[in-house]
# Entry
Amino acid sequence: MQQWLFLSVAIISEVVATSALKASDGFSRLWPSLIVVTGYGAAFFFLSLTLRTIPVGVAYAIWAGAGIALIALVSWLIFGQTLDTPAIIGLLLIVAGFVVINVFSKSVPH
# Structure
């Protein structure tokens, strides 16, 4: 179960870092830039801990897919960015892939 906590922290850290990346204004603002570096450092550290028990392909697929979906949600809620229908369909397919991996794959420890 610990691997899922590590993976969740990795995903949240990556989403926070990516959100701060926009606010860093090309690394010209100190505090958002520090959040970016710290967030990505934490994301990769916790992803590496996850890889002790979850295969790299599966862990990375979940990390990337969840990160994409969450950053799209954050972008909509915080930055007011909108998505068109094809983008929403694409995100739903990513979420569906996440569900299929977690529910049906024998590569994922349950």
The chain has a mean pLDDT of 93. The two ends are 8 Å apart (CA to CA).
